[in-house]
Amino acid sequence: MKVERGEVAAFVVELEYGLDDEFYWPCECDDWRPVARFDHNPAAPDGNDIREEGLHLDIYRGDDEYYSTDDFPFVTVEKAPRWCEEYLLDNLDFLLERYEEFNDLGGRWSVTLRR
Q1: In 3D, which of 3, 1, 12 has the Cα closest to residue 113?
Q2: Which positions fall inside the DUF7718 domain (predicted)?
Q3: In this structure, are residues 59 and 95 in contact, taking their beta carbons and an 8 Å threshold?
């Protein structure tokens, strides 16, 4: 999260899936893949501004393919990072199961939520 003059200027809240051939502690995984991501970065050339566009969630299928959904309530920029984190945690099982189906992974997941 980037804060400028006391206001949230940019943030990313991303759910990631750890891929590894052996059992590992999540912090030791070297291969993390995005599953779902909320972001706000109006200063970036292709960035999103949730104040104008509202929240949207990019849901990754794998191989950098994703689709976006924007059926979310209005959330202020200041409250959005926490709201997004709670949304991903509340929908964790659904999002991970879909990601595993898209990528034929068969339920061997370890997860991290980066903010």
Answers
A1: 12
A2: 2-101
A3: yes
